[in-house]
Design goal:
Blueprint: E1 9-23, E2 27-30, E3 33-36, E4 40-53, E5 58-70, E6 74-75, E7 82-92, E8 97-106, E9 109-114, E10 117-118, E11 132-133, E12 139-144, E13 147-159, E14 163-170, E15 178-179, E16 193-194, E17 199-202
Antiparallel strand pairs: 1-4, 2-3, 4-5, 5-6, 5-7, 7-8, 8-13, 9-12, 10-11, 13-14, 14-17, 15-16
Length: 203
């Protein structure tokens, strides 16, 4: 903690840390079934900076890094290795009215799937209507591009002496993006899981 109660600055808070985690006998989800897998080595680091002012204004800045290596699957690519956050809050009338915004930049990822084709099940000599055939080598990797997500909102405390109101806009940039399968599962799925675009909430 630096510059605490110095002039217009209330506090400058900085934090940085690193962690190493080893997971043994991880249970994974493969093809919809849970199986015993190998070990995982996880390296993670983060940085957080928060600058607050006597007037109630604030600025935030953070960075997160994670790297996971599985003894059987290799390096996991269905998670973002880098995430960056930057935002701030403007405060007026003794914090009774606030305007805040947060920008999140998420790094790229990969989605591993098996390509599916209509036809008879593999090894079956009897035609089956509506069957889906998946070749063992039919691996498809979908690149999930980096995305910038902006959240912004306005809030009021003690409105009319008794009411708190907050309104938020999520994905204010109205971007189309998706998430890979969390389990890195070899499912029959050709697209990433879509996420909502522009949305609103009020409370």
């Amino acid at each position: 903690t630096l510059f605490e109660n110095k002039h217009a600055i209330r506090r400058l808070y900085l934090r940085a840390d690193y962690a190493y985690t080893r997971m043994n006998s991880v249970i994974t989800n493969v093809g919809g079934r849970f199986e015993n897998s190998g070990d995982r080595d996880i390296h993670s680091a983060e940085f957080l900076g928060n600058l607050s002012f006597r007037s109630g204004h604030e600025l935030w800045l953070s960075y997160y890094f994670v790297d996971v290596v599985d003894s059987e699957q290799g390096r996991l690519r269905n998670i973002a290795n880098h995430i960056f956050n930057a935002g701030g809050k403007l405060s007026f009338w003794d914090d009774r009215l606030t305007i805040s915004s947060l920008l999140t930049v998420r790094g790229g990822m990969e989605d591993l799937n098996r390509a599916a084709a209509l036809g008879n099940p593999i090894g079956s000599l009897i035609p089956v209507n509506g069957a889906t055939s998946v070749m063992p080598t039919g691996i498809v990797v979908t690149q999930v591009k980096p995305v910038s997500l902006l959240r912004t909102g306005i809030g009021s405390r003690n409105l009319f002496g008794f009411l708190d109101v907050n309104a938020w806009v999520y994905n204010a940039l109205n971007l189309q993006y998706g998430d890979p399968d969390f389990f890195y599962d070899d499912r029959i799925m050709t697209d990433t899981q879509p996420k909502p675009q522009l949305s609103f909430i009020m409370e």
